[in-house]
Please model this.
Amino acid sequence: MKQNFKLPLIIISLLAFAAILVFAVIVQKNPAKDYREVAQRSYRIFSPECPSAADFAGEKMPLELFYVHESFDREIMINTFMHASTILMFKRSNRWFPLIEPILKKNHVPDDFKFLALAESNFYNAVSPSKAEGFWQFLKPTALHYGLEVNEEVDERYNVAKSTEAACRYFLESYAKYGNWTLVAASFNRGQDGLSDAVADQKVKSFYDLYLNDETSRYIYRIVALKEIFNHPVKYGLYLRSGDFYPVIPTYSVAVDSPIHDLPAFAIKNKVTYRILRDFNPWLKKYTLSNKLKKTYQIVLPKEGAMNTEFLEKGMPVSETYFHDTLRINEIH
Model:
């Protein structure tokens, strides 16, 4: 009797254990599968809205033409979804627009040209494959022609104030030639000779009627796309707070009209490192400044404590002038 009682109990136990195993297998989580399912449920990509009206320097973009609309739509889409690059551009613009804007205004150059500088360099001192350098991406011959010093020790293409003045001279000279700011901007990319030849050969007067190489064809559309996204970031999914932008760092200038034979020593004398000296004066190229012509250079240095982020956050709040839309948390869903 005892054996007969044990057998059903063993069978029941085995069946219960098997049921538990089956249940465990059924409910067992698959992290990779769950991740994919959550990603598919959560990830959405929508086509950004292409504006129905846009302009460069007050000159209307003829968006009623299909190829103009599609070209502009392409740059809106690329710069909307190139998140890291676009956000970094806007972070840096908060630092450099306040320097560039007054120079453009003083020279009677439209404010929209600040977006040309942004499109040229992302406000990063890179060297292009064609050896264009600085925020405005001047080639050496062009820089020299418009009054910038470029040699082994000094390269004023990296002096933002001076290179902006040189850019303004270029823009005003081009405007006297074309009478049209859109063509002026296009000529900055293509060169005056190349653009003038295209205008003459194709017998048209509007940038939007020209057949040009791909880089120049996209140039104006990219500039205006950056302007559009910059002015309406929330519309394009960019929720940035004023504190996200890089602040203007307070500085002062030291006038130098004689040679400096040891720039690292000069930096230490002025309570900074050579690295900081070069960061604030990237136009200096060597450890010396011979200054054989005894020119007066303005060497820019940060004010005491100005590099401390806590000081910048408390004493120098980031301007909210440039981003027209502000972050509204309840808009994020």
Remarks:
- The chain has two domains: 55-244, 251-315.
